Amino acid sequence: MKREARKESRHGEATCNTCGDTDCSASKRRDGESEQEFEERRKLASRLCRIRHKVVVLSGKGGVGKSTVAVNLAVALMMSGKQVGLLDVDIHGPSVPTMLGLERETVHGQEGELIPIEVGGLKVLSMGFLLRSQDDAVIWRGPMKMGVIKQFLKDVAWGDLDYLIIDSPPGTGDEPLSVCQLIGKLDGAVIVTTPQKVAVVDVRKAITFCRQLQVPVLGVVENMSGFACPKCGEVTQILRSGGGKRIAEDMNVPYLGSIPMDPKIAEACDNGQAFIHHYATTPTAEIMRNIINPIAALDETKVVDKTTETMRYKEDKHMRIAIPLANGKLSLHFGHCERFALVDVDPTEKKILNREDIEAPMHQPGLLPPWLAERGANIIITGGIGQRAQALFAEQGIQVVVGAAAETPEKLVSDYLAGTLHAGENVCDH
Ligand code: ADP
Fold first, then answer.
1. Distance between Cα 65 and ligand 1 center (Å)
2. For ligand 1, atom 12: residue with the closest CA
3. Given the CA of residue 260, which atom of ligand 1 is nearest to it?
4. Top CATH class, 50-299
5. How far, in Å, from the CA of 67 to the mean position of ligand 1?
6. Radius of gyration over alpha carbons of the chain, in Å?
7. If you measure from the C-alpha of residue 357 to the centroid of ligand 1, how many angstroms do you get, rounded to a whole number?
8. 424 contacts: CB under 8 Å, gap ≥ 6
9. Any idea what the Cα angle at residue 95 is, between residues 90 and 100, rounded to 5°?
10. d(CA 125, CA 158)
11. Nearest atom in ligand 1 to 268's CA
């Protein structure tokens, strides 16, 4: 469906009958479908078509760290400058509210819509916000559970998102099946497992489940694989590990990596803090960031959307763009550039006001984000940049535009302001 063709309703949600895409399955009533069913399907489609990438996090069984991976994946994407929603549909153990310190929140609704709760820019909706007690869902029978999941999916007003991360109910039964079928076209699934043999058997089922539903498997994550020393971060293998990797190879799906058992993860979860944000500089956080690379890559080749990007800066009227330089053009090796061009622009008039070139400081890990923030930069246009550096820039409130070509600062900034900057692949991965 085309975004620009949609008509906005009072709350900014699109109405699907104006989409203009005659191939959209929600534009026509299906044989045997009642008027109400068709309305509901259309409503769901109109919400979901404003979300560019939908990724479901699955596990063969509970307790393997599915929600932990879903939360940290969502926060990592958000920290890299994406608009992200996190949907927790795990009716039996919705743990997202606890993990993000939102247990006391109740969800607000307006005219039949559920409004997600925002935490640091991340939009969150969890079944946990709706259940009065954890036992509520246990007494629901099958069709009732399905009805609740459906209503939940159809009523959440996400608005426009780059990513929706869905924390699915565990297993491969009716509940995850309903979630995947209702969402329709998913970009893929991340399957979380633990190293034990029994868990690995469940992964096989989860991969088969995805294949039957034609959901691409983005990869397998082996969680609680070894133990990370709280002092030095070194990982010691306690039990046999590598099962996740073997099964991924066996079944020909990507292996995304292993996350060790790290007491800081459990601590962060219990304290309602996102681990990847609060412990951003730990080796385990680095492992997690590497795991999310293929998911972040779903969104990497893009033309920067002028309207949304420049709108964010309209309010503060100050936009200073930093560009790493080598021989007068953008340096593709950001961490070791000679100088930085700092370009002041008027985002409303879309005009370059001033350019100042400054010597880059001596190379030192983690220094550039605060150094550029101190010099007033709020955007950096760069070639390649590592995930960790992106996270550090996000912490400083600096937006990162990656994958730009070796052009002059004037050309890059003009293209950026005109909305024609082609940001290609992020070539740097360290
Ligand atoms: P699931 O969603 O699969 O049921 P959770 O993500 O809720 O599992 O994790 C279960 C518990 O295990 C949580 O308390 C979480 O803090 C903890 N946990 C998950 N992964 C790790 C890890 N790698 N190291 C330490 N604790 C972890």
1. 4
2. 65
3. 23
4. alpha beta
5. 7
6. 22
7. 47
8. 300, 301, 403, 404, 405
9. 130
10. 9
11. 16
Find the residues whose C-beta lies inside 6 A of ligand 1.
59, 62-68, 93, 95, 223-224, 259, 261-262, 265-266, 269
Distance, CA 238 to ligand 1 centroid (Å)? 17
Ligand 1 midpoint to CA 288 (Å): 14
H/E run at residue 323: strand 319-326
pTM: 0.68
Locate the domains of the chain by residue range.
Answer: 50-299, 310-422
259 CA: nearest ligand 1 atom: 23
Ligand 1: residue whose CA is nearest its atom 13 = 266
Map 158-192 to HEC letters.
Answer: CCCEEEEEEECCCCCCHHHHHHHHHHCCCCEEEEE
**CA-nearest residue, atom 6 of ligand 1:** 65
Residue 386: count other Cβ atoms within 10 Å of its Cβ. 19
Would you say 315 and 392 are in contact if contact means Cβ atoms under 8 Å apart? no
Q: Percent helix, strand and coil across the chain, each rounded to 5?
A: 40, 25, 35
CA of 265 to the centre of ligand 1 (A): 8
Q: How far is CA 361 from CA 130, 332, 364, 367, in A?
A: 51, 17, 8, 8
Place of tokens 């927790």: 88
Residue nearest to atom 14 of ligand 1 (CA): 266
User: How many angstroms separate the alpha carbon of residue 66 from the centre of ligand 1?
Assistant: 7
Of 61, 64, 68, which is best to mutate to test ligand 1, by the most ligand atoms within 8 angstroms of its C-beta?
68
Q: What is the pLDDT along the chain (430 residues), one digit of tens a residue?
A: 333 334 444 344 444 553 555 556 667 788 888 888 888 888 888 888 899 999 999 999 889 999 999 999 999 999 988 999 999 998 877 899 999 999 888 887 777 889 999 998 999 999 888 876 766 666 667 777 788 888 888 889 999 999 999 999 999 988 899 899 888 889 999 999 998 877 788 899 999 999 888 899 999 999 999 898 888 878 888 777 778 888 888 888 999 999 999 999 999 999 999 999 999 989 999 999 999 888 988 886 443 333 333 334 333 456 899 999 999 999 987 777 889 999 998 877 788 999 999 999 888 778 888 889 888 888 899 987 877 787 788 777 788 888 889 999 999 999 888 878 876 655 544 4
* β partners of residue 392: none
Task: Give the residue whose CA is nearest to atom 27 of ligand 1.
Answer: 266
Question: Is the CATH number of domain 310-422 3.30.420.130?
Answer: yes
